[in-house]
Specification:
With 373 residues, this protein is an alpha/beta fold. It has one domain (1-373): Vaccinia Virus protein VP39 (Rossmann fold), CATH 3.40.50. It contains ten helices and 14 strands. It has helices spanning 2-22, 32-45, 93-97, 135-138, 165-176, 189-200, 215-222, 248-255, 289-300, 332-335, and strands spanning 82-83, 146-147, 161-163, 205-209, 227-231, 236-238, 243-246, 264-270, 301-310, 318-320, 324-326, 339-345, 361-366, 370-372. A seven-stranded mixed β-sheet has the order 7-5-4-8-9-13-12. The protein is globular, with a radius of gyration of 20 Å. The N and C termini lie far apart (57 Å). It comes from Rotaria socialis.
């Protein structure tokens, strides 16, 4: 009984928030100068030609309500758009065949501060099914199927972790030996490290989003990043040189202060964003959690900066609640909304319905803050 009441209250909070956003009553930015500038930036990115090309409009999500929000501060000096250098796209056959290279409709929440997503109530109890009143939001107007057959839930908060010099060195030795590596025991990261070292790693500031084991961090340090900052909900203590850790809440407070604000040359995220908003890790139940996190990434990346993103790719969109989302022709272009898609470092997209095993790194560049390419 108490569990049912909790889920009902949680759903009501989310529904009310979404309703206020849709009718324009949920004002979150405050300062008029900040409020107008990021909105102009996000609109402008839709029309920036990259090497003379503007991707055509997306047809699969036309007129579908999506609430990603915006960044509440500028990632350029003096709020001025700057010229950016974008790499030529290397088209992936699966992306071409499934119309991934397209421009979504404008976002429906043009004044919502995406950093407020973490203020929604945490998921304290296992939610086995998406509340009926949120189904349209989670499925993008019922266009994405859902399966409930395989569920997990973290019943306790994450314990603090300690990243020692010795633990980092263990991972770095694996990188030097080119071993199968990381939380998923794969070699997916090596093409990204080798092909983009000079542009995105060597003597660059890097950030890692969503990790419990520092395998990406160690690889970036091995490739001579000037610093690596991990942004993770769990409290992590690091004694390794050039490796820093911070929670999203503390990081948001820091970024809100213009004097402390930090922008990165590259951001890395492997098999993390697909979980955002499903409640599996006690995170707030949020149908647009993944989209809002992508907006947050545009806030911390320099204009033209690199995002190396790994999520499950498939020719068929799917939600395995509460495990993860699988991204296809419907949701994937929305995820890439403010980014130039450079290349897929891997085989492309799985084709079997519900297959989440294809998670190559996709190389993206941030278009927010740019006035030309």
């Amino acid at each position: 009984m108490m569990k049912t009441i909790y889920i009902t209250i949680l759903a009501i909070i989310i529904i009310v928030t979404l309703a206020l956003l849709q009718c324009g009553m949920y004002e979150t930015l405050g300062d008029d100068k900040l409020k107008s500038f990021p909105i102009d930036l996000s609109v402008y990115t839709r029309q920036i030609p990259v090497h003379g090309l503007v991707d055509p409009a997306c047809s699969r999500t036309k007129n579908v309500y999506v609430c990603a929000g915006i960044c509440p501060w500028s990632n350029t000096p003096n709020n001025e758009r700057i010229a950016c250098f974008f790499l030529p796209r290397k088209p992936n056959p699966d992306f071409v065949a499934n119309n991934i290279y397209c421009t979504p409709d404008p976002d429906q929440c043009p004044s919502y501060n995406a950093w407020l997503k973490d203020d929604l109530p945490q998921t304290r109890q296992h939610i086995q099914r998406i509340p009926d009143n949120l189904m349209s939001n989670f499925t993008l107007n019922y266009s994405i199927p859902i399966d409930y057959s395989n569920q997990q839930f973290r019943t306790t908060d994450t314990w603090p972790a300690n990243w020692t010099i010795e633990s980092i060195e263990k991972y770095r030795k694996q990188v030097r030996a080119r071993e199968s590596y990381g939380s998923y025991n794969s070699k997916d990261i090596y093409p990204a490290l080798d092909n983009y070292a000079s542009l995105a790693i060597i003597n660059k500031t890097c950030a890692v989003i969503g990790t419990e084991n520092p395998w990406i961090e160690a690889a970036l340090l091995e490739y001579n990043a000037s610093s690596v900052t991990t942004i993770e909900y769990a409290t992590i203590y690091s004694s390794a040189p050039r490796l820093y850790t911070i929670t999203p809440m503390d990081f948001a407070r820091k970024q809100n202060n213009a004097k402390e604000r930090q922008l990165f040359d590259s951001v890395w995220s492997y098999s993390s964003i697909e979980h955002d908003g499903l409640g599996r890790y006690r995170d707030p139940l949020n149908p647009y959690g993944d989209f809002q996190t992508m907006i947050k990434i545009t806030c911390i990346l320099k204009p033209g900066g690199f995002l190396f993103l790994s999520v499950p790719l498939n020719t068929h969109d799917f939600i395995q609640f509460n495990l993860h989302r699988i991204y296809g022709p419907i949701r994937l272009p929305l995820l890439y909304r403010h980014f130039h898609v450079v290349e897929v470092l891997g085989s492309g997209m799985a084709n079997r319905h519900g297959d989440s095993g294809t998670q190559p790194f996709v190389v993206l560049q941030n278009k927010i803050g740019c006035n030309s390419a």
